[in-house]
């Protein structure tokens, strides 16, 4: 396995023509971005259209120090613009109207289409007009529960065009999770499709939306309009039998088909001029208390940061074809499927399916088909694909690839090497991008032509980003060392608040270390100054790149009448990165058996989503607790991996519990 000293220089073919061709260039640009932020970002902002010009004297203000007053960040405050105008009209006016914005590749290889910038602008305007006709106004929330289809992009940009705040929820979340999110933001409209195929699985999305909307209605909130894209009837099903769209139940007065209203709407819609600090969208992320947090991003700063990271991190050039496999319902889909690429006038692939359908080489088939230059995916997908024969990769022509991206969780060196050698032919640069829903865009990342790569290192800060490592006491760790990863100042796309809960924003991110934005991750700096993200330092876990909180799963488990208590920890998993390992204590009358295990797994699937299903459930007649009753998760994590080196257990109320749990680990653990 490569050591921290193994360094892979960017290949000459990548360095040539690269936007940032050396580490010295990068350092110079990074220095300028910190010393003269107005000048650095001001130059970039000039490439966009501002209806009310930027006041350069009032370019950037913030307070990160909770002891000095409320936390805030403002970039280009007072200037007005419209993001959809900049992504669409501006590109059409620049002569790129006929350029392909998206190649759409369906779940089934027989299904594909394409959309130019001009057509995308027309579709967005049409749908924006439909939203307006249903009473949607600036500031209203629109909930979106969509598969990876072009209408999802159209919906996002139509909201941006009229100043409505889109709130996408990954269409793998359960009706419960979705309804909680609709209720929290009190969405007026919901946009979905009748369903979608993912591999051979049929997702009945409208049916899930119906359940979610009726749960909301029970709690006094009625979604006024539900727009449904009729998708299933136009695609090829795995069996070849056409799907009958009349199977989808529609509620009169509330539900309308996209196809019945959008085609006749006008293709022109004047954009709503938005203040730079007006909200653009919100996106929920798990919180360690269990209640999801509505991360709020604003207009101007998010737009310029999404555009700039896309350009430099993927070393994008106008003739490139770019593909990000992330689902549109996650932040990666927002910034690097929609906003970043379109802000650069790029051509992207939008893929509906999975890496495994119809065969385990689908990713490489698609790269070859569209001659993809930049490919961006998650370590969990790489680890899943590594298990198959090399031939599945090598039989395809992947010579178009130049940059390979990784996101969502730490990439283990073995997966990195496979990606680098087999997919990238030791020619491509790998960008291991560290960021969060909250950061809006990449914050730590190598740059393709500039950064000598170390497998598994997120490397260096992007422009405008100032990372600091702190010890437990809040003292800065300079040089080599490890600790909490925090940031000393905001970059343009840092989230501005949590929807309707600024207090929670301040407490979660700014209270532990006044003066810093606290990521919740740990990091170490090696002797060469490279940053390595070591994982969460709070009670969050990352299953296949999906972040969730142990508290959320525990509270769902303990609602089961047979359970007295539950404690959930993350256990390393060869493909998912981490999986859920649950310790449960039954009530006096509860019986621990296969039926209970099945029920508990099912509850978690239903309440959160299938991706959250626990891998291991262990019977724990008692949990290791301190004398004050606090569960010692450190010990549970050791039991989960069967590591008897548990350290100091002198504070435990009953040390015998530990031995008992080691002795009764389930066979599948
Ligand atoms: O723990 C870090 C991990 O994913 C978390 C953010 O999750 P989310 O908000 O869902 O956004 C994921 C996509 C940006 C982080 O706090 N994470 C993300 N990227 C990396 C990572 N951990 C290590 N290396 C990465 N490249």
Automatic annotation (TrEMBL):
Task: Name the UniProt key words of this record, in alphabetical order.
Answer: ATP-binding, Ligase, Nucleotide-binding
Which residues belong to the signal peptide in this entry?
Answer: none
Tell me, which GO biological process terms does this entry list?
Answer: acetyl-CoA biosynthetic process from acetate
Q: Which residues form the AMP-binding enzyme C-terminal domain?
A: 552-630
* Keyword DNA-binding attached: no
List the EC numbers from the record. Answer: 6.2.1.1
Record domain Acetyl-coenzyme A synthetase N-terminal: where: 26-86
Reaction(s) catalysed by this chain, per the record, are: acetate + ATP + CoA = acetyl-CoA + AMP + diphosphate
Claim: Signal is one of the keywords in the record: no
Q: What class of enzyme is it?
A: ligase
The segment(s) forming the AMP-dependent synthetase/ligase domain are 94-496
Q: What protein is this chain from?
A: Acetyl-coenzyme A synthetase
- Organism of derivation: Phaedon cochleariae
